[in-house]
């Protein structure tokens, strides 16, 4: 069986929300949610957390991370990209474990409402269809065909980003569009190393519900995530009650 690696990057010193990656969300540090979701997926040989902070790594270890990686200074700046961080983690984990992973999954710690099954099903898509990468998305609220404008330099005015033929009058007749939710990125090892980009040449999508797709960057996001979590709990409880009544 192909062995799989999960990487969770958590850099200290967030500007929008100081120390948001270890701030308590529903009773546990934010990063702990992603670590435990990766473990719950039950498909990874290694769940690695990469950070520039020893304190963050200790919190990740207590949450169950199987490998805690102190990243070098050049990967701890605002300009360091996720691809470089994941590449460093891949090399470090393969050297330490003396094994080669078939796929790499990146989980963003700022997406605490995904579930283990979302991770498992994303990886299954990569393996079943032979994609280079699979990205988690959610149905887009806005559409370039109907309500997204961009400046047209030729006419010096704002126009629809992607105008449709005159015969298409209803939004539901336009192509379906999705937005990246930033929660889950999965790559085959070969594509990750040869292409080195988030969206590879052959990319599939894994569609997640909007409430599970919350990405925390601001205090408003945090407040909405707490509300979304309560709504998800209520829906789960309602479903359990309905199932017992059948």
Overview of this structure, please?
With 246 residues, the chain is of the alpha/beta class. The protein folds into two domains: 202 residues, Spore Coat Polysaccharide Biosynthesis Protein SpsA, Chain A, CATH 3.90.550; 36 residues, no CATH class. It is 35% helix and 23% strand. It has six helices and eleven strands. A seven-stranded mixed β-sheet has the order 5-4-1-6-10-7-11, sandwiched between helices. Helix 1 packs across helix 2. The chain starts with a strand and ends with a helix. The model has no long low-confidence stretch (mean pLDDT 93).
Can you say what the CATH homologous superfamily of the largest domain is? Spore Coat Polysaccharide Biosynthesis Protein SpsA, Chain A
Counting H and I runs of at least 4 residues, what is the number of helices? 6
Biggest beta-sheet profile: 7 strands, mixed
- CATH class bucket of the largest domain: Alpha Beta
Distance between the termini: 39 Å
Report mean pLDDT, rounded to a whole number.
93
CATH topology name of the largest domain, in short, is: Spore Coat Polysaccharide Biosynthesis Protein SpsA, Chain A
Order of helices and strands: EEEHEHEHEHEEEEHEH
> How do the strands of the widest beta sheet line up side by side?
5-4-1-6-10-7-11
Q: Tell me the total number of β-strands.
A: 11
Which ranges are low-confidence, i.e. pLDDT below 50, for 5 or more consecutive residues? Answer: none
């Amino acid at each position: 069986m192909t062995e799989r690696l999960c990487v969770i990057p958590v850099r200290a010193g967030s500007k929008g929300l100081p120390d948001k990656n270890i701030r308590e969300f529903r009773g546990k540090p934010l990063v702990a949610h992603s670590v435990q979701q990766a473990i719950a997926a039950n498909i990874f040989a290694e769940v690695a957390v990469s950070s520039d902070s020893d304190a963050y790594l200790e919190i990740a270890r207590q949450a169950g991370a199987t490998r805690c990686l102190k990243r070098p200074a050049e990967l701890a700046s605002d300009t360091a990209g996720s691809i470089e961080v994941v590449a460093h983690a891949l090399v470090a984990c393969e050297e330490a474990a003396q094994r080669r992973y078939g796929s790499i999954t990146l989980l963003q710690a700022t997406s605490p409402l995904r579930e283990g099954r979302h991770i498992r099903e994303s990886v299954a898509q990569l393996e079943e269809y032979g994609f280079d990468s699979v990205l988690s998305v959610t149905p887009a609220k806005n559409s370039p065909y109907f309500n997204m404008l961009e400046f047209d330099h030729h006419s010096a005015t704002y126009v629809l980003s992607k105008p449709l033929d005159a015969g298409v009058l209803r939004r539901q007749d336009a192509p379906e569009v999705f937005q990246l939710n930033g929660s889950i990125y999965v790559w085959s090892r070969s594509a990750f190393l040869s292409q080195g980009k988030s969206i590879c040449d052959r990319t599939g999508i894994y569609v997640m519900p909007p409430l599970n797709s919350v990405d925390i960057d601001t205090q408003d996001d945090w407040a909405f995530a707490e509300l979304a979590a309560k709504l998800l709990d209520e829906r789960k409880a309602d479903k359990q009650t309905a199932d017992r009544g059948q």
